[in-house]
Each structure stands twice: as C-alpha cells, then as structure tokens.
Amino acid sequence: MRSAIVGRDDELAAVEGLLEATSAGPAALILEGEPGIGKTTLLDAARDLAVTRRFRILAARPVPTEVRMAHAGLADLLRDVPLDALPPAQRAALDAALLRGNAATARAPDHRAVAAALLTTIEALATTAPVLILVDDLQWLDASTTSALGFALRRVTGRVGLLAASHPPADRLDAHRLPVGPLPSVSIGRLIRRRLRAPLSPAAAQRVEALSGGNPLFALEIARAPDATRLPDTLNDLVSDRLDGLPPDVRLALATAAALERPEIALIAAALPDLDVVAALTEAEAADIITFTQGAVAFAHPLLAAGAAEHVAAAQRRAIHARLAELVTDPEQRARHLARASVQPDAATIAALDEAAALATTRGAPAAAAELLDLARALGADTPERRARAATHHFDAGDTDRARALLESAIPDLDAPAAARSLLGTIRHRDGSYAEAAQVLTQALQEAPSGGALAVTTALELSFVLTNQGLVAAAEPLVEQAARDAAALGDDGLLAQAKTVQITVATLLGHGLDEQGLQQALALEDPDRRCFVFHRPSLLAALLYTYVGDVDAAQHAVDAVRARCRERGEDVELIYTAIHAITLRLWRGDADGARAIADEADDHAEQLGTRTARAIAASTRAQVAAWTGDAATARAAAEQALTTFSEDGSMLGALMPLTTLAQLDLALGDAEAAAARVGALAAMVVATPNAEPAAVLLVADAAEALIATGRAEEAEPIVAWLQERGATLDRAWAQAAGARARALLHAAQGDLDAAEDACAQALAHHERLPAMPLERARTLLVLGGLRRRRRQRRAAREALEPALAAFTALHAPLWAQQARDELERVRPRRTTSEGLTDSERRIAALIAEGGTNREVAATLFVSPRTVEATLARVYRKLEISSRAQLGRRMAEVDAGANAAALTPPADRPR
What we know:
It is built from 45 helices and seven strands. By secondary structure, it is mainly alpha-helical. Among the domains are: 9-179, Rossmann fold; 665-826, Tetratricopeptide repeat domain (Serine Threonine Protein Phosphatase 5, Tetratricopeptide repeat, Alpha Horseshoe); 838-902, Orthogonal Bundle (Arc Repressor Mutant, subunit A), CATH 1.10.10. The strands form two sheets. Strands 2-3-4-1-5 form a five-stranded parallel beta sheet, sandwiched between helices. Strands 6-7 form a two-stranded antiparallel ribbon. The chain starts with 8 loop residues before the first helix and ends in an 8-residue tail after the last helix.
C-alpha cells in the first residue's frame, strides 16, 4: 500500500494505527482537507488493507444529491447486512427506516430506535470480525444517518472503527481529526509520472509543482495540459474548465446524472429521450469525469458532480428536475425534484412535499421531514400550520431551539393553537423553564378540545411541571380529569399513563398507594407508545415501589425501563431515570454500578447540552461522590445542581442535591451545616399533614441534625410527623427513621432507657428493609453511642462492630469513620508515654507535620471541629500552647518510642 501511494507516509501510518486500534476496541479517525487533496485515495488504500486483515467493511460514499435524503447513507452502510437477529423493536424501526418488509404498515419508528438498531448491528458484527466503517465525503452524509452513526459511535464497545473523509472541516462526528495537507513538491512529480505515465521535462515539472500548491488534483489537471500558463483561481474554476471542454449533449447528460440520488443509465436515458445517453456518458468517461458501475454512473470526484449540476442554464436545470419528477417512484425524491423544478408555489409541488414529509416521519427520519416542510415554506407555502408541523419534526430530531422559534412565530396565527402551545410548554419545561412552562401548558389545556387526547397529554405534562414546582395538590384535579377522559376515549395506552400519574399524585399527597389500580394500569401499558418517560407506567411504578419499601421491585422496574430506553436510543429518557437508578444501587452498596450510571449521565448531558440534563448529571455525580467519601467533588456537583434547579423553579429536582448535601454534612459530623441546609425545608414539609414521607428523605436527616445541634423543640414535630405518617401508611423506612430520631430526642433529654427502646423499635422496622442496609447501620451507630454513654462497653461494641462492617461493605467511608471513632471510645484505652490516645496521636502527628485542621479532617474523614477539639486536648495533656511546641514535643515522643523499641526488656533472654 505504501509503495502505491505517493508522499503520504504519515497519513498511511495513522490509517494503519486506526486499524490496529480497532482490532482491540473502538477507534475513529476523520481525514480533513480541501477537495482534491487525496483523502479518497487514502480511504481506498485503507479498504484494501482492511480486506487483507479480514475486517468486515461497511461503506458509504454520499454525493451532494443525497444530503437531504432520509437514511440514504444508512442504506449504503447496511446494504448487505442481515438484520434478523435484531430485537423486534429495533428490527421494526430499521425496516421502516430502510423501507424493508412490511414497513409501510408499521407504526412510525422513533429515530432514536433506528440509531440503537445500528449500534446493535455493528456490535453484533464486531463479535465475529473487526468492523471498519468507511464514509467518504462525510459532509454529504444525510442528517438521519449522521445522527444514527454518531449515536452508535458514542456507545460502541466492540471492535468497530470509523474512517471518514470530510471537507470542509465539520464537527459532525466525535473523532480524532487528521489534516491532510499539500504534497511536497518531489511527491507531486512522482505522482504525475505514475498516474499519467508520461515523462515531464524538469522545467514542466517545476511549473506544475509551483502552480498546484501541493494539491494532487490540481497537479494532474495542470499536467494534462503542460503548456497551460495559469492555474484556475479555485477548484470550482478547474471543474468548470474541465466541463467547458465537453460538448453540450455530454454536459446535459452529466447534469441529469448529478441530479439523481442513484444515477442509473436507464433513468438518465428516459429523462433524455432525444439524446444518445450512452455515447454521451462514454465520452465523459474518456474525459475521466465518470466511471460506469453496474448500470449506473459514478462521478470521479464529488466536485465534478456538483459542477455538472450547475453547468447548465437554470431553466434547463429546472426542466431536468421536472422530467425526473415524472420518472422517479420514490415520493421523497419526487417531491425534491418538483421543488427544484419550481420557481413559485403550486399545489401539486406543495402537496408532494407534505406527503414526502409524512413518509419521512413514518421512516423515523424527523430531520428529513422537517427539511421537506422547510422546502415547502421556502417556496411560499409558509403557513402557520406547516410551521407548527415543521417545529414538531425539528423537536423530534433534537433541534429544540429551531422548534421553539418556529412555534413562537406560528402560535399567534394558528386557528387552533392548542397542540403547538402544548409542545412549546413541553420544550420549556425540558429546558428548565418551569414557571413559563406552567403558564404555556395551562393556556394550551384551556384551548384543547375538552375530553380529547390532546387535553389528556397536556394535563399530564402540566401535572409534571406543577409537581416539580412543589404544587402537587394543584395537579390532583388535573390528573383525575385526565384519567376520566382517557377512559372515555377507549385508548388503553393513554389510560395506563393517565391512571398511573393519577395514582402517583395521590400517593405523594399521602392518600396511600392504590396497588390494585397500579396493577391494572401496568396491564394496559403500551410499551411502544412514545411519551415522556415520567408518564410511563413502568417508571412511575418503580417510584411507587420505592415509597412503599419494595426496593427489589423498584430496581427491577427501573432497570427494565432503562434497558428499553437504551434499546430505543432514548438518551433524554435515560438521563431522567439516572437519579432513581443510582439511589437504588447505593442503598444496596453497589457503588461501582452507581458510578457507571453517573458517568453515563455525564456523557448524555454533554451530548444533550440542556440545563436540566447537566443539573441531573451533576446531581448523580454528587450522590456517588458523597457516598464514597469524596466530599469536595460531592459539594461542588451538588451545589451546581442545586443552583440550576432552584433558578429553574424545580423544587422536586432540588430535593436530591439537598438530600446529598445534608447526608454528607451528617456523615462528616457537621450537624450544624446539615440543620442550616434542610431544617427549615423539613418544617415546611411536615406542615402538610397528609404527605408521603418516603418521597422526602431529607426530613429524617433534618430531624437528626436539629437534635444534634440542641434544637430538640424544632425536631419534635418532625419526628412526630415521621412516626405518624409511617404508622398510618405502613412505611417501614419512615417508621425506622422516625424511631431512630426519637431515640436521639430521648437521649438529648437524658432518658437513655427510652432512647434504647426506640432504637430497638427502629431495628425491628429495619428488618422489613433488607435492601437498605445503610439505614440499619446508622441506627446501630446511634445504639452503640447510647450504650457507650451508659458505660456498657461490651454492649456498645456489639452494636458498633456490625455497623462498621456494614459501612465498610457498603463503600461508605465517612460513616465507617464515625463507627471507628465510637469503637475507639469503648475499647480499652492505649496511651502513649505522653498520655495521648491513638486518635489524639494521629491528629497531633499530622498537625506537627504542617497540616491544617481542614486538611487533617479530610485525611482522617472527620470534621474540622473534631480536629479542633482533639487538638485542644493534646495541648492540655502536653502542656503546650502552639503548633511550634507541638512539633518539638511530637519529635521527642517519636524519639522516645524508637529508643524504647531498641531497648530489650529486662526479662528478655539476651
């Protein structure tokens, strides 16, 4: 390969490196450079080398006419790939996208399911051989394929490599980019001699090298006419010069070929019945403009195709498209030809564009559907209704900014704006504008036909927004009416959504869980129905199972929802489920599983780029960091999430970072910080008597923090509320947390007997929560402290040792350190020769080495206040008053210890 290509040793080395890397795992490389610089030659060489290494090759070489054709590139990539082993949902989506099988009768696929199907396909291929995806002229790859390919490449884990060529440079795919620059002058001469097989005089060679600027295409074109005295100003001029030398009939045949997505000779001949097309194309082949390939033509370079399309008069070009519109059978191609043949709107063209947009929707290509409607609008058919439809497609394709702009311009002029306004409200709440979303959705609900499906879906969206704002009671009548309307409509899938949302709202309001109604709703769920993830019965069921303490069922449900989201490529939905999935894993001590979900959420948030996605990702990052003892990361991420949720008006979103920060403060022994953060909020929660305690976990932490800071009178109503709500609703977690807090209250009041009885009650409730071992360990920690206060050292150890073991197994080092500190207080005291305990000596040694209180606290997983109090005891015992004195005394202590270690005991045999 190296001997066949001139002057590209570095680029070839990079290609070989890509293939080598792909043999072990995913890799991607995009060659970037100006037209004619040699990118295609490198791709062809890579193909040859990959074949010798037994790679499976998936290739696409798009042309300018395909850039708007839905899934054109995907069809090329998967042309000879069997799809039988795909999961049913993905197979159906891909069949619909590629117009295979019974796609015409299938439900319109989600474009994300098409992307997920591509991922599954290439992963499966990579199990038998490394896969190389080759894309020449990436800039012409259609948006639907680019989106699917980008999705797959971000997630692929197998032996899959991408090698693409692009001009101009564009960040359409995430990959390493390698500029392909000019050839050195000596290589230009060698290239000309090899390619044209004609010697050049030294003078001619120098002139060609100077004029070409290192561009191989320029050099070859100049060398074809060595007497030329100038270089065209641009490659477009060069292309024009090439085409100008051809007869008009040849240029007409080439223009017709360039207008086609697949330029078949028979179709070109049908479009030009008065022309000897074969003869014309043969002459173009002799001029190195095209090549013949299996009854079709292929341009030698995309620039030649683009130049051929523009190298006829505008009227002639429109006539070509008009004729092709009569001949092609694909509705999307026909619509585009009609649009390019038109200079003013006509009913037939607009209708064809509308029909093609509808077809693109059924193929899961919302970007193509939006572009077709935009074409109709550009021709003068820019009605508010068409603008609203285009907005829907832009939204589905992920371009929410474009969708919002179109909706805002269309709504004032729509006769029936409810659907458009409802979509606008959805966009506003997904980008974090909850207050504005509530206003927009409220108006949309008022405008929607009463009792219709639109009214139901809008009410569900509005209920989600109100619940996020903490206005759960305001959502209750909305979801009750939505459930009645859905039942009257006879739409089981919609009824399942409305009924589950209704049950969730009722549960949050403290009415208890309607388990029978939930099971009925789940039985009616349509898993293929497209809707917001928090309207899906399966996910809401996971939340409800958590509230009632069935953690196993909750995790099974949320994992099933996430698996389905992943199968369908639903990144937005995945990130909305991340917090709940992480919480369930952390409760079980699965820190690695939680961290993997948080990392995935970070990736998705970066791809989505919305405020809400980034806040959710930050919240998940904080959860994992706080649990595993990385206090600095946890604080920074939680504060970031809290700021965003607070600014956006999402009280529900703010609960998790607040809970994380409060638990972190308690784990570090900083009860004052925890109380300041969540004490007032907990008081507000318990002021609502009928609420679901398990939905607001921070209430229990607030009670413990208030008690620890001497504010028992503020904690009393919170503890009473936890116990009352827990008993009324039979919530094991609330009863256990309430009993533990009650124990702390009794202890603060000096009644240690009652405190230990309350701990026993808490432990009995914990027996019903085997999937929440950290909560049980926290109660054991409290019990051990109570027994220590009663000077029951052995009994205290019997509680503290299993607490320490649980915290350690759960990868919760901050809580583990608290258990160690308590154990140290009840173990027989071992003192140094200076009267220091082991704990005091550790802290004194670190301070003597120059550590600050905060640094020492972070090293030993204690609070700065603990360090400060311990240091005061050390100063008192050592009768010193400064850190300088401490350094000298600790050195003396160490020297004494070393000397003692070197002196044999008197009774030891010598």
